[in-house]
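Notebook entry, structure prediction.
Reason for the run: the old model in the group folder had no record of what sequence produced it. Starting over properly, with the input documented here first.
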Amino acid sequence: MANSRYPRVNPKSGLQEEWDDHFQVPSVKQRSISSLRFNGQSTAVHTVPLANGLTLDFYARLGAADELAVTFHGAYRKDKYLYPRFERVQSLEKLFPAHIAFADPTLRMDRSKSMLLSWYLGGPGWDPMDDIFKVIARAKGRSGAKHVVFIGGSGGGHTALRLSAHFPGSLAYVQAPATDIHRCFPTAKKNYFSTVWPGWDPEKLLDAFPERFNMPALYRRRPMDNFVYYAQSTRDPHYLDTHFEPFRAALGATPTGEEEPRGKRWLALYEGQKEGHGAMTPPEFREHLARALTWWRARRPAAR
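New structure, fully documented this time:
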C-alpha cells in the first residue's frame, strides 16, 4: 500500500526516500558507500551506488543494542526471483533490535536472472566484503553495538563463515553452509563463473584464492579469532559429506553435538526433523541460535 508522504527528501539526512510496498518501510537512496547516513530512519531499505555501477542493497533495523545481527541469503528459486532478497527480517525482529540483512549485489551482474547463487563473492577487481564491512562499521556506530553475529545457511553460510573470519570476536552461526565452492553444485558454479568471470578458468581461480572460495583452507591456514557454531543435520548426507566433513577435517575437530566445546568451534551435528538440504525447521533454527548465543556470550572478549 503506497504511503502518501513519499517520495520525499528526508529533512534529517537530506537523502531521497521512497516507500517500499513489499517491506512496508521507507526506501533510502544513499549517495555513496563512503557517506552513509542512518540518521533519517531507524528502519529502512537502503540502496547504495557502488563504483562499478552496481548497488549494495540492505534492510537495516538499527535500534540501540549491544549486538548487531548480519544475515545473508542462499540460492534463489527460479519461480521466486525477487531482488533484493533479505533473510530473516521478521524472524529475528524481537531477538535483535539491531539487524542488517544484505542482498547479494553480485546477482545484479546477471540481467538474465539465470545465476541464482553467487555467494556474495563479487568478481574481478571487486569483492563485496569490503563494502559490507563499511556498512557494518557505520551501523555499529548508529546502534551502539559492540558485538557482531553473522548468520547464514547454505550459500549464505559460506558468506557468514568468510566475513566472520575477518572480524575478531564475532560469531558465525551457520546452518549447513557451503564451505568450499569447489564442491558446490556444478550448475551453480557454471552459471556464476561464466557470468562473472568470463574467459577465466574456474578451477584455477578456486585454487588461487582459497581465502575467497575455500573455507576449510582459510580456517586451516591460520587460527581465526572468531567463533563458529556450525549446525549440520545428519539427514542432509550430501552436505554432510561434501562440506561439513572437509571443514571438520581442516580444523582437526570432533563433532560435539549438544555438548559445548572448550574452544571457539562448535560443530553441532543433529538429526533433523526433515530430510534433505535446507530443511532446518524454524524451531530447530531458534534452538541452535539460542545455544550458539549463550555459548558465545559467555566466552567472547569484552568490548573495548
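Summary: The mean pLDDT is 94.
The old model has been moved to the deprecated folder.
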